[in-house]
Amino acid sequence: MPAVDSAIGQSDVPGNRNWYPHKPDRKPLKKRMLAVFVGIWATATAAMFFITRGDWMLALTLFVIVNVGVAGSIVFYESLLPHIASEEELNRVSTAGYAMGYLGGGVLLALNIAMMSHPGWFMLPSREIAVRASLASVAVWWVAFSIPLFRQVPEPRAHVDAGAAGGLGAAARQLLQTLRELRRYRQAFTLLLAFLIYNDGIQTIIRMATTYGTEIGIDENAMIAALLLTQFVGVPFGFAFGMLADRIGAKPAVFLGLTVYAVITVLGYFMRTSTHFFALAMLVGMVQGGTQALSRSLFASMIPRHQSSEFFSFFGVFERYAGILGPAVFAYVVEHSGTSRNAILSVILFFILGAGILLFVDVDAGRTAARAAERDASLA
User: How many angstroms separate the CA atoms of 290 and 297, rounded?
Assistant: First the structure.
């Protein structure tokens, strides 16, 4: 994409419109830490090839390590966004990232399904080996497509304070200080609260869809096909949300996505057939990537770019650990009503409450505060 290409490698060059003088995060470690976490989850994922029947402890251990690695890498990956895109490009670059993620995930998932369905095509002796090879292929895929980032995206410059204290104690104090500073950026902090709630609803739909589908009798193959459909529908609609945000603004576009999610929960209550399941999967694919990507770009636009790693660490926590309260509410409703239909309908509360909090976010005021902080940092 021209927008991405023009930003990569040029955002920190004096004279370029994306350049700004600043004192970024304490040390130039974004890409280095990203590489560390990529190495962690890629190694653990590749090691899943050695999981055999009954190795539940090995599987659980590797699963935990993978999730730690992914959560850590996402923080540093997303913190690069405000450094490679100008404020005018944030929405398009963020949604393009999600769209390409859907494309990559969909292609690999299709290959893995083919491997497990027809292991002989890939010179694999059995379906069990094919399943294990599919897990290992994810590690190879992740590492291979991380290479362009490490080669082409520049490490944002950092102001190194030689007198700064190190160690875990200093890191803990810095974390508390960052939280206090984030609360000073009221609009970004309010967005985080809204995102935590409505993203919990999004993650609940993603995680509980197969459970709900199984309960009402949807065929397993149909659910797998619907998952593939969601991935590939997300590609064009990811780009479309970026263009829509440029026309009407990111915040109204997020509201549109949340409205569609509310409709999905209502339609889900009445779902009966595989056709209905496919229709809802298409609706999810239309709004899932765009809603999350624009939430990310909105947040990036309302924080000082020189503190992107610090602030995105909190965004990462809110992003990765959403989907805890939603499934708990889902399970509670199932237990007390005896059906998942009422549970899927209850998820609408997360979208209504999240949208209600989002109403109070003043995007222009948030961006003004962030840019003022950057000017102050450049003069300090």
Answer: 10
- Encode pLDDT of 182-193 as tens digits: 777 899 999 999
- For the record, the structure tokens of 29 come out as 């470690």
pLDDT tens-digit readout, 305-329: 878 877 887 787 777 766 678 888 8
207's CB contacts (< 8 A; 6+ apart) are 323, 326, 327
Residues 29, 32, 38: CA angle, nearest 5 degrees? 135
Cα–Cα distance for residue pair 45/43, rounded to 1 Å: 5
Q: How far apart are the first and last CA of the chain?
A: 36
Residue 197: phi and psi, rounded to 5, are -80, -50
Which tokens sit at 65? 């390590």
CA gap 26, 37 in Å, rounded = 19
Tokens, residue 209? 């869809």
Alpha-carbon dihedral of residues 239, 198, 318, 343, nearest 10 degrees?
Answer: -120
Contact 94, 294 (CB under 8 A): yes
Say if CB 330 and CB 201 are below 8 A apart. Answer: no
| Contact between residue 294 and residue 250 where contact means Cβ atoms under 8 Å apart | yes
- Is-contact 79 312, C-beta < 8 A? yes
The pLDDT of residue 167 is 47
* Residue 230, number of CB atoms within 10 A of its CB: 24
Mean pLDDT of 25-54: 87
Check if the beta carbon of residue 262 is closer than 8 Å to that of residue 207: no
For 162-166, the CB contacts below 8 A with 24+ separation are: 164/26
Binning the chain into helix, strand and coil, the percentages to the nearest 5 are: 80, 0, 20
DSSP state, 167?
H
Round the CA-based radius of gyration of the chain to a whole number and report it.
Answer: 22
Cα 29 to the chain's mean position, in Å?
Answer: 21
For 189, the token pair is: 């902090």
Three-state DSSP at 328 gives helix
Set out the domains of the chain in order of their start, with CATH numbers. 2-13+22-157+186-375 (1.20.1250.20)
- Contact between 316 and 377 under an 8 Å Cβ cutoff? The reply is no
Contact 203, 259 (CB under 8 A): no
Contact 47, 62 (CB under 8 A): yes
